[in-house]
Amino acid sequence: MQVISASCTRRAAAVVLLLACAVLSGGGALAADPLPSWTESPAKSAIIAFVEKVTTEGPGFVPEPERIAVFDNDGTLWPENPVPFQAAYVVDELRRRVPDEPGLQSDPMVQALLAGDMAPLMAGEAHDGLMHVISLTHAGMTTQEFAQSVTDWITVAKHPRFQRRYDDLSYQPMQEVLRYLAANGFKNFIVSGGGADFMRVWSERVYGIPPERVVGTTARVIYELRPDGPVLVKTMDQLLVDDKAGKPAGIHQFIGRRPIAVFGNSDGDKEMLEYGTISNPHPSLGVLIHHTDGEREYAYDLNPKSSGSLKTALADAPLRGWIVVSMKDDWARIFNDP
User: Fold this and answer.
1) Whole-prediction pTM value?
2) Is-contact 226 233, C-beta < 8 A?
């Protein structure tokens, strides 16, 4: 009886050892969940199935250099309500400057922005009012001065609803997608309507996306050699608005490869989703983040508080095979733990 008992003990120990090795190696059914903040939903399954398909030798395999993933920022990687975070920066900067600059006090677009009235700023296809107030806080300074201004602001500014720093409000489920894709040979890029210089200040620290992989709204800079060294001065000339049809153009101009994974949340991302998924020679994935959770974040599609309207892209999703992620149903949590 003692011999049999020892044999059984040795077998049990061997089984435990094999299971431990499987867990540590990441193989088999016991591999760690790459998306733990997602519920067990079709959206999560589709993302994982896509990654496994394009990284496994055989039909659907995509060579690593061509594994390009692009992400809108506002509303896709972090909130864009009640206003996009860059707009919050502009508001705070103007509030700081208005007491000392009478000309700003009489500016109708500045008055609208400080009153929280986004309608006149967002009017028109080019959002001229918004571009005007952005120019007041972006143009005329060096790129170093602007980066320092954004750094100073984001270090102390807090979201009016969540009372947390803006850079602490990235979506935890999307952080996991970024890491999951990077671990599987993807290059992640931000392709956003936000200013490239604004996002490059913190994108690597917050998302692990280096500044050279940030494609955003840009304008001409002017080189100057000053007594203390060379500088680049920001202007609002030759403005490239990286939104809607500007996103595929920006991808071509700054990335040079067609993406196979596209993540967005609004009609402003529709053309980017089309570019990445329609007639792509490789398997492709299109994902729309649908803001459906009014308790933990915001609930909107047609009527956001500012930007982020989602109508035509949402209607096209079932026709194009795009995955629609419901924040309420598909995300077990929205943000990281405070």
Assistant:
1) 0.89
2) no
